[in-house]
Amino acid sequence: MKKLIGTVAAILVLAAGCVQEPSTELSDSENIQNLLSGSGYAEMTPLEGQGESGGEGKSNGLPEHWWREVNSEGSMEIILENDPAMGVCTVTVVRNLGADFNIDITHDGVINPAIKPISDIRTRRLIVEKMEDDTAPHGGWVLTHITPAEFSLNSGITQEVFIQSMKVYEEDELTWECNSQNTFYSIEDGLPLLEPGTMVRLEVEVLHTNPQYEPAYYVYAHGPCPIWPRHWMNDDGLWGDRFAGDGIYSYEWYVEGSSDHWFIAADIIDADTMLDEEEDDYDSGAWGILALRS
Ligand SMILES: [Ca+2]
Ligand SMILES: [Ca+2]
Ligand SMILES: [Ca+2]
Ligand SMILES: [Ca+2]
Fold it and tell me: How is the chain split into domains, by residue range?
């Protein structure tokens, strides 16, 4: 008993010691780290969840089912690209993604997938500006711009599939586009603004550096879509695709107001990954941008 009292007393002394430390103001760097580590604009979706496999299934090599399942996301690594003393700072945010790629290529009406490991790295750049004095939240630092999130392989496998551009049309009018993952968009008025019930079309261009199969890859849209957050995109002149075979893949939908998925992503997966359940060959690339609900 005597020993226990001694321990409690020691803890109290330590706690008192902490309180007596002089309180230090946070540095610009610490304020920016705090601002971004709690911001939905900095975190990046893992593109998990169910969706359409796509097309006619058996005839075009598509699996019966596939989906990603997150295992670990890691914390965000926040890298300042310049001295924040300038009052404006560009920041790179990097976040790992460990996941399972569930793939079921047996068209037997049964969900019987195998798993291929996913090790990805997601990158986004942001601009923060010091708008108010040190007494304001986060020392006056405010997030003003973001780039799309870019998904790249971190598995040691050479990535061969890439997104090249994204275009968002609302009621057939081009309202948002991206031709480089390094383009900054204003948080205030530069993100896709989607009104539930309106018709939206995503068009993307892609690249495969080493095509081995026909088709060489499959392309998917993610967003506030009906039924599933993920849908197959085609270049067959079908379901909203304006021209068959022009290299522009499309998916068109009515914005689903009840969706939880307020981001738009374009996601390409190598046919090599999709055609078997055995090989450790997950190869995919994606761009994703937050969408706002109007
Ligand atoms: Ca099956
Ligand atoms: Ca590949
Ligand atoms: Ca097309
Ligand atoms: Ca393969």
Answer: 25-293
